[in-house]
Specification:
The protein has a four-stranded antiparallel beta sheet. With 78 residues, it is of the alpha+beta class. The longest helix has 10 residues. The chain has two helices and four strands, in the order E-H-E-E-H-E. It comes from Paracoccus contaminans.
Amino acid sequence: MRPVFVQFRCAPGKTYEVAGAIYDREVVSELYSTSGEYDLLAKVYVPEDADVGHYLNQRLFDIPGIHRTLTTMTFKAF
């Protein structure tokens, strides 16, 4: 499993709804409310053999109220 971080920008007034829907799907290991350009930050473990884009699209990105996402890949540096 490789960790991937996903930030979510939500429609105004929809952050709590989106967060609840994310948790209901049982895909993320951690979910935080954040300040700045994005409203939520999630840590997702993607299976090594899975395509990250397809994995996230099929499990998270169709949630109503999400306006934009930013995915940050991680790499083993040490």
